[in-house]
Amino acid sequence: MSESRDDHGGSRKPSLGAFVELEGERIHWDLGESLSYGEYLHLDKLLGAQQPLSGQHDEMLFIVMHQASELWMKLCVHELQAAMAQIRGDDLGPAFKMLARVSRVQQQLAQSWDVLSTMTPADYSAFRDSLGKSSGFQSFQYRTLEYLIGNKNAAMIEVHRRTPVIYSQLHAALHSPSLYDEALRLLGRRGFPISAAVLERDWSQPYAEHPDVTAAWLAVYRNIDEHWDLYELAEKLVDLDQRFQLWRFAHLKTVERIIGYKRGTGGSSGVAYLAKALELRFFPELWSVRTSI
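^ that's the sequence the OP posted. Answer follows.
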């Protein structure tokens, strides 16, 4: 609120202009028994969760960025699980909105690395030892995302054995159909000849490209008018896959910029490990089929 001053430097009443923005508004100054904004969002817990260990200025940035990313990933998991339920029910309209939202969140996650990249190697080295063996490699929500979308690797859950509830959740996701599995099962229900080796496989195993699936997606793309919703589903999946790769790439370049080719705190080879992840594609036929369209 702005104040005017008299000739002697003393404060006078606030100027009329200070009240313009509230003129005609009916602000609830007294909330009574109603929830406040802070109470609804549990901001006391949320804003109290940043506890730097080193006393170094940039550790706060590191913590906030990763905590915010975990919140965005929580939303992604929420949306993907709901989208998969819609696909199972052959109700694709709501699924398209959910998948589009996940893609936008992935864009937000990729941009978050731009903020972290303002940290220099010296800044990070000043508190890196405080992390111990903790690493984003241990993010159970990231692992859940990969399992939901289709990158199945049983070894990845071993680091969570000491947390039974999380281990159980990841084990269930590992042994359940992925988003792509649900999409392929939908193709089967729509009458496309998909092998039982695809539709009734061991869900815990990594998906392998199959000619039946390539042929089915090619038929969709060659007859868009007849298969419009399947065509739109395919494009939503491609968008999801592409943005996931961009998110991974932004991660790789930020790590390379800050720590070079040091090993990760979680034991991985760091940049070299992240580079290998860039070779993975969740929906291989949706990329290979483009050459034949």
